[in-house]
Amino acid sequence: MKPKMRNLTKAVTVISLCALLAACGNDKQARRGADTVKELALLAKSRLSGKKAEPTAQPDPVAMINAVLNEIPNAPLQFVLVEKTGGFAVTSIYGTNGNKVTWISPDRKSMTLESGVLTATRGFGGDLMSVEDGGAAALIASRSSGQAQKVYRFLNGEDETARFIVNCTIAQGERDVVTSGEITAATNVMTERCQSNEGFDFTNTYWIDDNRRMVQSVQWAGAGVGQLVFRRLRY
Questions:
Q1: Which of 22, 68, 129, 168 could disulfide-link to 153, CB 3.0 to 4.6 Å?
Q2: What is the dihedral of CA 76, 82, 85, 90, to 10 degrees?
Q3: Which superfamily does 3-234 belong to?
């Protein structure tokens, strides 16, 4: 295990900072936009309040973030939340390949982002194996509007890879100042609205700073996993 990963696991394990939480029954997908990500702590706590457990058993995501930032100085860190279940963790970088960065959680779930755009998951079940983005990531990073056809490849129940094709419209939205962990940044909000020929649709939302860095995002990871919320805590 890499030293930074070992430290992250230790930090999270000591104070029970990574929890798989029960869903409270409300689908957050319709609430795309700044409100979804600005108050990640409140979102996580609302999930927690839906779980039948004693208050003392409820981990505090704010305390989690602060503890890991203190425990692991200088390393890039990212908060990740699974909207459907309420599970959350602080992740660290496991590896890089060009613009692709793989982030890993203490329970060994991983997410690969290319310029901040999700391209793969591992360890979730029904994983996203790869994405052909049709130029979407470049449009998003440059904060440009446009069209792209994306091909998602998922692992199905028979361990076979299935293709899912969507047509996406990318548009630039409002300016928004984001404060997250040690980061404060002025950003443009980019929306990516995608629809398949069968009528299934989803929307991804990205906050891009003036250096083309993804500060936070809400991204679809598949029918099983649903939306993943990413929030950078430190570059």
A1: 129
A2: 0
A3: YmcC-like (2.40.360.10)
